[in-house]
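Lecture notes, part 5. Sequence design as translation. It can be helpful to think of inverse folding as translation between two languages: the language of shapes and the language of residues. The source text, in structure tokens, appears below.
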């Protein structure tokens, strides 16, 4: 089995999830490539101890990401750092010749995202993708196959959202995601939006216009040392989009929701697609259940399919058993390494988020800010800050 030696920059929660996926790689018996963590970097070295204690393959520990990128043993990197550092760190990794999986939103704003994509275009031999794991849910993989088969007929309406309640408590101390300086002006949309957009964008359902309503519900939060400081990012957002289905050329409404203050929600992703022949509904509140309505005349009946371990990449777990968050992380990493090795994704919906999809999300989010500020519908500029050229690892034509 081929080994890809990884460096990890950012040793927070998602860095630990990546490391856990590496430790579970034997769970994927059909993979031809495996990751090995050989270097870790974090501004606070204390956070690297967990990695060193559990992964004897690590031979470099540093608090300077430039030292890690200069390490010739490192072939690829996973970078999980605050949004304001994306452009600097991602471009440095690409220019150092390292394949990259980076965290969403792939730049703090549209100019930062454009700088990353321009850097990718200048280095077409470097494989770059964005982290977003929910597309690998078994139910969403099934929905992807239905989209590929044209099973929905004419698309009538799409709803997608990511809801959680982690900020419901106004006494929760502030962190970097609640500050414009580090998270960016998108607020919750930048934090959660790529998860929401992944399936619609992969299906080609890109919004033409947007009317956005944004809410800053908790404007101040504790600073953790006895004071109160501004919490200046958007907590909740609803985007109403006029969208075109490329398969038919017909327009349909798409509603996207990103909420960090959603009472009763832990960490809920949902997708609902209504079509003239098939409709589908899925929510992680009931992760085993895919609801389908298949209409060919007569009665309209919603049915339930119980989804087990029906993953894009085969695992040792029996198909009848439940799946969880860590399984999706493992699948995302399998997709990254499989496409890196073979030059194309396993299928259209079994590939990681592409850089050009992050650019589409930035154009949407930027238009949403303008829409909210001016209380009007805003047309999305599909050519804003487009890179000069595309890298060789874009999706093949037969998967578009």
């Amino acid at each position: 089995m081929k080994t890809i030696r990884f460096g990890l920059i950012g040793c927070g929660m998602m860095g630990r999830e990546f490391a856990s996926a590496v430790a579970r790689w034997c769970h994927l018996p059909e993979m031809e490539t495996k990751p090995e963590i050989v270097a870790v970097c974090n501004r606070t070295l204390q956070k690297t101890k967990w990695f060193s204690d559990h992964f004897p393959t690590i031979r470099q520990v540093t608090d300077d990401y430039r030292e890690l990128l200069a390490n010739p043993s490192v072939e690829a990197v996973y970078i999980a750092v605050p949004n304001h550092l994306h452009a600097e760190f991602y471009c440095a990794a690409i220019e150092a010749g390292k394949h990259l999986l980076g965290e969403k939103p792939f730049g703090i704003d549209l100019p930062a995202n454009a700088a990353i994509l321009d850097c990718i275009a200048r280095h077409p031999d470097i494989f770059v993708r964005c982290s977003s794991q929910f597309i690998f849910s078994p139910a969403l993989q099934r929905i992807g196959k239905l989209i590929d088969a044209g099973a929905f007929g004419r698309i009538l309406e799409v709803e997608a959202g990511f809801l959680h309640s982690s900020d419901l408590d106004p006494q929760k101390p502030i962190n970097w995601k609640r500050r414009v300086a580090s998270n960016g002006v998108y607020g919750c949309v930048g934090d959660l939006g790529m998860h929401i957009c992944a399936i619609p964008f992969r299906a080609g359902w890109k919004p033409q216009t947007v009317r956005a309503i944004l809410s800053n519900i908790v404007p101040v939060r504790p600073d953790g040392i006895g004071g109160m400081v501004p919490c200046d990012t958007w907590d909740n957002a609803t985007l109403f989009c006029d969208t075109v289905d490329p398969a038919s050329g017909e327009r349909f409404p798409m509603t996207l929701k990103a909420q960090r203050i959603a009472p009763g929600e832990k960490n809920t992703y949902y997708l609902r697609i209504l079509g003239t022949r098939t409709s589908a509904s899925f929510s992680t509140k009931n992760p085993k259940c895919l609801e389908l309505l298949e209409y060919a005349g007569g009665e309209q009946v919603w049915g339930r399919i119980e989804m087990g371990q029906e993953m894009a990449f085969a695992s040792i777990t029996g198909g009848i058993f439940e799946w969880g968050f860590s399984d999706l992380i493992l699948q995302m990493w399998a997709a990254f390494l499989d496409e890196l090795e073979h030059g194309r994704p396993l299928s259209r919906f079994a590939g990681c988020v592409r850089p050009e999809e992050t650019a589409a999300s930035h154009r949407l989010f930027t238009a949403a800010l303008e829409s909210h500020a001016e209380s009007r519908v805003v047309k999305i500029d599909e050519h804003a800050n487009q890179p000069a050229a595309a890298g060789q690892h874009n999706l093949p034509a037969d998967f578009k």
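The translated text above is only one of many valid answers, since several sequences can fold into similar shapes. Residues 355-374 form the longest helix (20 residues).
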